[in-house]
Design a protein that fits this description.
By secondary structure, the protein is α+β, with helices and mostly antiparallel strands. It has four domains: 101 residues, Nucleotidyltransferase, domain 5, CATH 3.30.420; 61 residues, Nucleic acid-binding proteins (OB fold (Dihydrolipoamide Acetyltransferase, E2P)), CATH 2.40.50.140; 110 residues, Aminopeptidase (3-Layer(aba) Sandwich), CATH 3.40.630; 54 residues, no CATH class. The chain has eleven helices and 23 strands. Strand 2 and strand 3 form a beta hairpin. Helix 1 crosses helix 2 and helix 7 runs parallel beside helix 8. The longest helix has 23 residues. It is globular and about 70 Å long. The two termini are 45 Å apart. GO terms for molecular function: hydrolase activity; metal ion binding; RNA binding; RNA nuclease activity.
Amino acid sequence: MKEYIIEDFIASRKLAVINNGELEKIIIEEKNKSLNIKNIYRGKVEKIISTMDACFVDIGERNPAYLKVSKDEKIQEGERILVQVKKEEKGDKRAKVSREIDFSGRYLVYIPSNTKLVFSSKIKDNDEKKRLKKLVLEASNGEKGFIVRTEAQGQGIEELKKDIEELKDKYDKLVEEYESSFYPKLLYKDKGSIFSYIKENLSEEVYRIVYVDGEINRPLRDLVKSIKLEYLEKLKKEKNIDIFEAYGVNNMLKKYTSRNVWLKSGAYIVIDKTEAMTVIDVNTGSFKGKSGYEDTVYNVNIEAAEEISKQIIMRDISGIIIVDFIDMQSRKNKNMLLEKLSTYLEKEGKRSKVHGFTKLGLVEISRMRKEKSLDQYFDSENRDLDIIERKVIYEKYHLGKERVEIEKKNIDLDNISDKLNEIEKKYNVNLKFI
């Protein structure tokens, strides 16, 4: 059974998915971001870079966005276009946008510019595919342009029709707003990855959703009610607590922020991040197998492969990943290791690709970047604000203090002064920096 734990702080909102007592997923939304993935803008082509088949698009934000343009697309500077954010800004790299707009529903993804009906790779049963294809085409009056999500399995025509109507209504309203003016503007703001995740994944398998009473209360109830009225019974509202501390999430997170990660066998892995790549080293540690050396090493590597996959997904590591497994002589064992690693990573979809062993005997993995990694959050100002808010909760509700002292070491107060004022107002306390 699963439970969702939601922490709603001034600087960030987090969702922890707990599966049978183990942290399965963590989603962090930083509230000071304006340019979220899935946001849709009315943009204006600002500058065409013909040598790169790309252009920069003014979307009304601080920086223009980057749009890749195919060679057969005709586009002019000053032209009005509808674009959707597909990749966030990172350092000097601009946000990447696309002209292919998509809206995600509970059972379907609607892509108006597409003419295909595509199924999630996790839907394996051919009879179920045929059944769903018939229902989707019937519910959409023959229109395609849909991706059938895994959650659609077992659903009837009424559920699919409701999803389709909601998605098409969103798009129609978007187009109407887009055509009403020529100026760059945010037309559709995504509700955030946490609400999207709940909308797409909440099921009977989740026995409760725990959160602290506050501004999230009404939108969360509305969301859950829209999925299924009976699911409102799953909501558990807490008051005046540090919810991640009370429900053990902070302790679970330590495993995904440590450099060294120990395995049950006594072996361990070491994770290091550089500018160019992430390097993961596997060590036998105190593990002593009962069989021969080759079998012992193989067993350690298989155990490490599963944990490495979890770490990559939980930390949201992207880019180039190099894994130094313990050397094996058997070609069969090497192939089995690669197969297992690919299987573990495929649980999250097709973001990761295992490229195999290099000439130096290292395993090379690449993973597409979507959002900020866990490491990037822990290095951010929002992390500092969350630490301050956590301390305020403890001293206000456990120690009864109205004045909370905070060490200002390594904190840039000028950049977060507005948020600090919000924390003081939210908890009715005075912050003193020493």
